[in-house]
What does this fold into?
Amino acid sequence: MLSTLLTFRAHRWMAGGAALAVLAAGTPAYADIAAVTPRAETPPLHDDEAGGNADADDPAIWRDAADPGRSLVVATAKEGGLRVYDLDARLVQSIPAPAAPGPGDAPGRFNNVDLVNGLRAGARRADVAVTSDRGHDRLRIYRIDPSRPGGPLTDVTDPAAPRVFSADQGEVNEQATAYGLATWTDRRTGRSYALVSRRSRTAIALLELKGTSAGTVTYRKVRSISLPASFRLPDGKTWTPCGEPGELPQVEGMVVDPANGTLYAGQEDVGLWRVRADLTGAPRLVDRVGEYGVPGTYDPATEECAPGADPGFGGERLAADVEGLTLLTERGGDGYVLASSQGDDTFAAYDREPDDGNEYEGGFRVTASATVDGVQECDGAAALNAPLGPRYPRGLLVVQDGDDTPGDREATGFKFVDLGTVLAALDD
It folds into this structure.
């Protein structure tokens, strides 16, 4: 639960040496947060040797335009690779993460996934799934073809695709590597990109996706930015979120609004940012976690941070970590940016219009139904507001569940929620 509830208005603060606008308004009815229930869940994944070290993280929804009822959910399982599910949450395909390149090197570890529609590679265009391989500090790209006999996904990553952040394998093994990911197709130019954050750092890189004549896909870095790691508080003190020594407050959850080319990025221990998706211009902090400004002392024995006194500068809608982000679009340009508030197992909805200050619009929880348990500690989410056949005629929300129960082993998975129930909850 949030320790402090504040109503705060627009301020100009100095953060990380640069002037940043902190935007928020209004007071949420926290006690009135709605509950929605899932319709289906995927088979549990187990992050142990017997389970192939599979740990659910981030989903994406691919719509089959020819037959929406045959649409698919593509999801990451970290060292367990990729999973593909049908709309009944049944497993369709399992793709292993790449092996370690050598003894002592890190194995492949798929962290986040997003989709690009109609990417040209060779003589054809295809829908592709793009995933961040944290273990190898690379992106991997998979063509989507539901008619393919061996499964809908085929690896089309160019063998020469470069590392995203690391100079060599030694740096890769330190694992300050590709982490969060969101794709974006610039409507003005038709060019497609992946925005990739760096684990344990504040950097975000813009990578242009490029098809080759051989039908593979590679990428090139266009530019990068770094969000602040320290923040000037209203009392004049400087605050740095507590973490393991040498680690900075990282970004994972990201999503791009294609209508206006705006990137939303969740800096886990800080809050929700927005910035132009081409990474030009100044980032703006849309909302802060409740723990914003709380000092902490790292305890190496417990590998946790012991919090100090709360100075009361935090937000009231997000409890750290800020995790999965997704865009819920509606007709006429309306809709929401949804953010997983992992610390209190809720989801916060913000107006998608930057001109309206991305005003907070409400929240909800995913609670247990008669047959499916609820969602806790959500890492990733994906929403698609389009008819998906008879199962989900009003669209679909897929959310990662970080504590899949019941069972005698720790497990994770994904829950499927009728998007119509979410929209109804937010419109109340």
Q: What stands out?
A: The radius of gyration is 20 Å. Confidence is low (pLDDT under 50) at residues 1-30. The first helix runs from residue 169 to 173.
